[in-house]
Amino acid sequence: MPRVLILSSLFAPNIGGVENSINALAQEFIKLGYEVNIVCSNRNYIDGSELPLVDKNDRLNIYRYKYPSRPLGYFYQFTGCFKVLKENDLVSCDIVMARSAVPAMSAFFAGVSDIKYLVPSIYFFQEQIFKLSSLRKFLSVFFNSIVQLLALLVSKNLVFSTSMIEQVKKASLGIKAAYLVSPGVDSERFKPISLATKQKYRNELGVLSHQKIVLGLGRFSELKQFDHAIECMRYLDDDVVLFLVGDGPERARYEELVKTLNLSGKVKIFPSTKKPELYYQVSDAFVMTSRYESFGQVLLEATSSGVPIVAYPKSNTTNTSVDFIYKDYPSLIFYSEGNNAKCLANAILDAIGTFKLKESRIEFQSFLERYSWHNLALDIIRV
For the segment 172-202, what is each residue's pLDDT rounded down to a tens digit? Predict the structure, then answer.
């Protein structure tokens, strides 16, 4: 039986775009007749409990290495991953795919010659390294950038957008190119629901029948700029409410901002969830406020659920792939005229007031056909 090896810093039970994509890809490879081996760290950000170092289930094997949160943690990650690969004879897998830079380097030094690095983002551009005020943060991002440079140089690099092709070229000092592939979305899981079911779920969440829900979902980090979504609620009537779903270092600041702006009745903050589809399905618009995204899995999930997207246009301060994703699907996206809260509020009003999924059915079906996990698995095999 052919074998696939997938390398990452994190995997389930952790929740995130990368973790979810690994799980979806693993299932597709199994359907294609592969044994799937996942090597990741034992970090558990859900409840902090100890994860088993080996977890085998049918044709899916998970091997975890210890990744302590202390100085030289990256060294322990590198050596831990290297040891797992060697001890379990994983370097001879038919396909080796990495989602993180350090594990990719571990695989290279373990003897893997054909590493397919599915690049999640470029640290140097993501963190705006020269604008960081903290020396500790600067050194962390600088180190990550160097490690990623090395991973790019020893791998066959796969990306989800044309802007990432340029970023990989720059980050690898012009030495390496990148292959463009399309990510996927589970359209059986993320799909529109009936109005009756939608209203039932909304009632359970305490939303009145006349109210409209704007959703922001993802990690609560400075990168996501969910504070913009909170601030824009000042310009919207009480029949529009904001749901923020996630967790992270910015959570306390978001909660304080809601209190300061007296928006407690209009903004509800929920913890991370293993069932994000429920929040997409009850929403009337999805807001993307990130200043940087290499792609944005949440966009595919929201659109697949029949929800219109509201986003900032690309600019000097916003570097996302929204324009690339929706280039052929203009009826599914509503752009803010400017990168500020008031313009964002106007775009939200436009989206919830004019979007009709039935009128965008042709674009919607074409969108689902393009973004398929099955197609991505085939692309990874072929590249």
Answer: 999 999 999 988 999 999 999 999 999 999 9
Token readout for 304 is 């697949």
Q: What is the mean pLDDT of residues 285-291?
A: 96
Structure tokens of 141? Answer: 């991002």
Q: 134 near 184, Cβ under 8 Å?
A: no
Q: Considering the entire predicted model, what is its pTM?
A: 0.84
Mean pLDDT value across the chain = 92
Whose structure tokens read 């979007």? 355
User: 101, 106, 105: which is closest to 118 by C-alpha?
Assistant: 101
Q: Which domains does the chain have, with CATH numbers?
A: 3-185+372-382 (3.40.50.2000), 195-369 (3.40.50.2000)
Distance CA 238, CA 212 (A): 9
**Spatial contact of 379 and 182, defined as CB atoms under 8 Å apart:** yes
Give whole-number Cα distances, 163 to 297, 334, 364, in Å. 16, 20, 23
Q: Report the C-alpha gap between 98 and 319 in whole angstroms.
A: 24
